[in-house]
Structures are given as C-alpha cells and as structure tokens.
Amino acid sequence: MCSFSFSTNSNDICTLEANNVFLRKRGPDHTEITTHNTFCSIHNLLHITGSKTIQPIKHNESFIFFNGEIYNYPKKFKSDTLSLPYFLKNIYKFHHNVDGEYSVVYYDTKNNDIYFFRDIFGTKPLYYSTENARLLISSLKSGLQSICNVVHSVQPNSVYRYNTTKRELTIKHDIFKFNLDQKNQTLNGFNKALKKAIIKRIPKQRFCVGMSSGIDSGVISAISYKNKFSNFISILNNENKQVVADRSMVLGPKLYMHVFDTFSKALTIKRLFSHSEPEKYLDYNYFKDSSSFCLSFIGEWCNKQGIKVFLSGTGADEIYSDYGFNGQKYTDNSCFGGLYPNNLVSVFPWKNFFTGTMKDYLEKDEKILGSFGIETRYPFLDKQLVQEFLWLVPELKNKEYKHCLVNKLKKSNFPYWTEKKGFSCEKK
Q: Are 152 and 362 contacting, i.e. CB atoms less than 8 angstroms apart?
C-alpha cells in the first residue's frame, strides 16, 4: 500500500507537501517528492516485501504511480510495480489482465494523456479535481485541501483520461463485465477460486485476520490459520463467545481476544479521532459507526506486533448474501432480500455490488487501517471468485444463508455462527 498526490501545475508542490500529513501515514517507509516541468508529485511508500521501488516509475516517456498489489505479475519481473509498463500497454484491458487491488495514475507525456483509475470494486481510494485549468489527483481528499473546492471520487471499474493540451476529461465506465450466465450446478469451481483468492493474498511475513464468530472471517481463518505468519484478533463484545472459544481451540496462541471496557473504548475513540483523516474529508462518516473503533484498536494492535497486512471480509455481505436470505432482509442495506433470481440481469448490478455499503465499508477499512500504515486485502472481492459465484445456479445461491461459504466451514469442521450480529465494540 502507498499513497500519492499529483498536480499538472508544478507550482503546487509546496501545498502538496503541506497536505501530506494523513497521506504519509499510508506510506511511512519513504516519501519521494518530484518536480517536473509538466507536473509535481509526492509519493509515500509502504514497504512490505522485496526491494523498495521508489515512485513515480519512469518508463520511456511515461510516469506511473501505483497503490496496491498485483497478484499475477509475470515471473520475469521482480515485483508487481515493475510489471506495470507491461500491463499498461493496453489501458482499457488493464482491469481484464490484472488480478489485484489497486489505484493507478499513468502519465503519457508523449501524447499528453493522463489515465487514472481504480480496480473493479474500487478498493483503494482515489480522488481528483479539474478546477483552475489543471488536473489534481490524490489518494485522500485531504491531499487536495486548499487547492480546489470540488473534489470527486474516482468511480470503480472505470478509466479516466485527461488530455493536458485540450484540458479535457473523458470517462469510460463499466470496463470489466461479469458473465451473468448461471450455469454451474456444483461448488467445485467456487471452492477452488475461494482457496486461491485467500492464499494469494497471504504475504511472506506476519499478517492479521479480524476474526468474529461469523461466517466471513471464519472462512478466511479456516483457510489461512495453518500459515506460519498468521495472526488473529477478536473483539468479543458483540460476538458469540462460545463460538470464538471453540475457534480458539483451533487457532491456539495465534488468536488474541479483547473486550472493550469504558476506559479502553475511550482511549480507542480518542486515537481514531486524532489519527484518522478528519470527518469533513469523508464520503461515509465512519466516526458514527461502532465497528470503526474496533478497526482503530486492531490497527494499533497490528502496529505493536509489526504487522503490515490485514485480510478483510468486506464484500461478502454485499455479494454473497445481499444482507438477507430467501427474500427476508436482515438489514436495511439489503436490495432484494438475498433471493437470487433465475435471471440475474433483472437485479445486476444491485446497489451494493459496486456502490452503497460496498463503497462505504471499503472507505472505512482503507482510511482507518491505512492511517496505521496497514495494507488491507480483500479475498471476497477477487474478480474470479465473484465470477464463480455469479455462475452458480440460483438453487445453490439460495440453498441456505451464504451457502457457498458455509459449505466451506462445514467441510473444514470450523466452528461458526449464522446469526448476523455485526462487528462492534458494544454489546447488542
């Protein structure tokens, strides 16, 4: 994970430096300041494995900024970032060819074109403005404060192109299209993709899983717990404590359990408000969400353990259950009560598939854990895994609540609880 700010006006460099306070927390290992005759930029690096790759990456007459991870970069490249010129040969096929979580800025100085985009689900934050005859881009809204009045969020599954000569912005949406043919009558393909989606996101160093008593974190835990670098943390306040206790028998000393009391909650809330990007820069006010306090505590705990990677269950509720089952809406967020129709076209894409709570909860994960210099990875948003789910016949999707995930827990004999309780530092 990294962060960056960029402007086509090189005179903005001093303001970008002044605005780098919260951006630097996302990349605490190195800050690179670049002033060029056609742009200025600041890049903050979070170094996880391998050699440090300082950005921007210069390739021929182009400059590249990258935030995130690529999981399918060719073996001839030593790192995912070094493979970027290879993938950027065809901008509009990038989402098809790259397996990962990312935001990218690609400046082709030869043709005076700047391309910028996020991955299919928009896991990594990215904002822009075209005020005052220039293009400004930043990983956080606060990176653009005092330079412009109106800041836009880059939409997921899209490619933005800005021509510096014409000062013209064009946007192409719906770049990657899922196949909605519900044809698979077994979970074989889904199960293979599920295991692969989790394994590929495990780094070659210590990582953390936030483990509740529920299904989503249970699946990630069941597949990853045997890895020597795995660590787990559970906030017990709103969990089924018996299920967590049963899971602790499997995970052993790898699991850390915490219960918020009045004092520890107050300290964590204070830490969140002082450490995270202020409320005025947020699209979703996660300061009013109790689960945010849990994430802040987890971020601080990971820092103390030297952990830089967190595996999140975000996306499972939005895609694999729609917050409901058999037409019954478990929360107000549900779009169709989790009853997947015979014709997916009639509901796809439902609100939370790309936007809605998907957007809100990704922002919460990214901005809170990012403020602690932790890279969050999202196994349930793996594009091949999502495609395998969409391919399942309705009978499998609707067999039971989150059947495709519960089936894995049953086969793994891993304890779980089907009640939807929610991640919280309160007792509900």
A: no
